Amino acid sequence: MNGRHSGRPTLEEVAVRAGVGRGTVSRVINGSPRVSDRAKAAVEAAIAELGYVPNRAARALAGNRTDAIALVIPEPETRLFAEPYFSDIIRGIGAELADTDMQLLLTFIRTPKERARFGQYLAAHRVDGVLLVSVHEDDPLPDLLEQLEMPAVLNGRRSDLESVSYVDADNVGGARAAVAHLFARGRRTVATITGPPDMYVARCRLDGYRQAVEAAGSAGASSELVARGDFTEEGGRRAMRELLVRRPDIDAVFAASDLMAAGARQVLRESGRQVPSDVALVGFEDSAIARHMDPALTSVRQPTEEMGRTMARVLLEEIAERASVRRHVVLTTELVQRDSV
Hints:
- It comes from Actinacidiphila alni.
- Helices cover about 45% and strands about 15% of the residues.
- The protein has 14 helices and 12 strands.
- The protein is elongated, with a radius of gyration of 24 Å.
């Protein structure tokens, strides 16, 4: 029997057979990404050889585990279906969780009552961790998650002093590159349509715009060239109308999202302006909308699906290891040039 007893194989036996520590075996079983490929293969081979079957009920009880993760979107559900950004994030999260035992629970929070109810749900430890998408500056949920010592990862952040783990994109650098490209192509009166001011992502993209305007030495760095949007198509339309009233001489627009760029393009067309001959247009995200617009939209590509994957990976690590160290991940962006400039 090679020293094996005839009873049910234990976690310790798997560790001995694989030549690794008990914690490594536990991380492999729990789906933590923080295990080398070599160690993972050794553990999986040992599990197969010994016929080890994890007792999920005992594991959940011992670790106070539920094998469930909440994906929280504090926006109306209509935005989930209208904006490709959310579906791309969810696709990445789902792909990363596909080979684990974790169930993903989608939760919308639109009112203080719903937030309070979800807080009670968290306090009862009904989930092992939380992924929070679309972070607003005044959202109390991240602070509640910290108070409850609940593993959590944000998509974006509330400020540059964010204390909760997050996965973000280089919003400042991406916006700066987009606007610099407009100036490099000879545009001189470059406007921007921003996202909501209570979202750090929107402020970062506005900062990038301002840095590029300043670097170009343009006289157009005025408040009348900045119009507030809300990351929706209607918000883009509304902001573009405001800009045309203020500055009919605009020859370029940087919209802080592809969806707002689509709304802006519609208003430009209605006003008799051609894209790009009269007004160049750039978006942010490089979503399917950018590729299917007419003309195709130059846009800043952020790896949205990879952001979702990374969020899930970081959260699995926090759940498996209960580490106190928070991780802050910023992914690179890239300007994708198409026909709208």
